[in-house]
Amino acid sequence: MIKTMLENDGVATIEQIAEAILSYDQSQKDYYADRVRQMVGQVLVRNEVVTTIKEGRNNIGYGLNVNADTLDEKDNLIDLCDTKIADYLKENGDNLWEHRYRNRSNFRGSTRYEALKRAKRRCELCGKHDDEGTLQLDHIIPHSKGGSDDISNLQVLCSTCNANKRDMDDEDFRGIMDSYNHRNHDCLFCDDIYPRKIDENELCFAVRDGFPVTELHTLIIPKRHVSDYFDLYQPELNAMQSLVKTQRQKILYTDNSVSGFNVGINAGKSAGQTIFHVHMHLIPRRDGDTDNPKGGVRGVIAEKQQY
């Protein structure tokens, strides 16, 4: 910022300062490098206007299929390019960059850090690590649909997946968004039990178990009606994991006799599931609450608990 002001007689606009900072932002350079390779570069190669320049197997640039220095109309062609770009910008207006502003929020640094830590610094859609490209925070349920900035409503996506998600928004993505609101009104966990909630985030809620194994036995339940644990979306898994950690801390604060926990999910009738809406059991354990706790959850088949 100081350098930019010094270069401009001591005064600089915010836009000038932002442009100067942007010149150092490798993540933005990488984003547009991907756009060049996947979009404009492919079009111009296909139309035999340019040729790819390779270094080994890597595409490192492009060259015109004519010698630019010998073009008599070089300056006129540059002016024509400028005119075409200006016309395109004028025709498309603000809509051209709408995807950059849509649902834009200034997330706190701590929120971004927690989301990246939860995602293990990987895109939650394709798995790309932040060493391979820029990672962005994105709303699961958009602001326009009432979504909040709570971390349970955020997902980490690489710039490519975030851009592609926008391209599908009119079909696939909106269908996924709507599916978060799916409820089965014949389901105990969809309607009847929700008023008993003791905590919640964007995608799940917590209640005390109606038939507790131990005192403070708690259930973590996704709001979307889904029968099988293995059909949960990754953001729902994140939200449940976040809430179970929160409830663990609250239980430990409430009852200092708690010295351990069993955490489990029954998935399928043969595994003991009786209510076919996914729910995670958080069962506090205390020293002496059973004669021999060894084996823990292995006790689902009693003779296999001890080993």
Task: State the low-pLDDT regions, or none.
Answer: 167-174
Order of helices and strands: HHHEEHHHEEHHEEEHEE
How would you sum up the global shape?
elongated
CATH class of the largest domain: Alpha Beta
Number of domains: 4
Gyration radius, in Å: 27 Å
CATH homologous superfamily identity of the largest domain: HIT-like
Mean pLDDT over all positions: 85
Percentage of residues in helical conformation: 25-40%
Structural class label? alpha+beta
Number of helices: 9
Number of strand segments: 9
Please give a structural write-up:
The chain has about 300 residues and is of the alpha+beta class. The chain folds into four domains: about 1-65, no CATH class; about 70-100; about 105-180, His-Me finger endonuclease fold; about 195-305, 2-Layer Sandwich (HIT family, subunit A), CATH 3.30.428.10. The protein has nine helices and nine strands. The strands form three sheets. Strands 5-6-7-9-8 form a five-stranded antiparallel sheet, with helices on one face. A two-stranded antiparallel sheet has the order 1-2. Strands 3-4 form a two-stranded antiparallel sheet. The protein is elongated. The termini are far apart. The relative contact order is 0.07. Residues about 165-175 have low confidence and may be disordered.
Characteristic key phrases:
9 strands, two-stranded antiparallel sheet, 307 residues, elongated, 4 domains, 5-stranded antiparallel β-sheet, alpha+beta, 36% helix, His-Me finger endonuclease fold
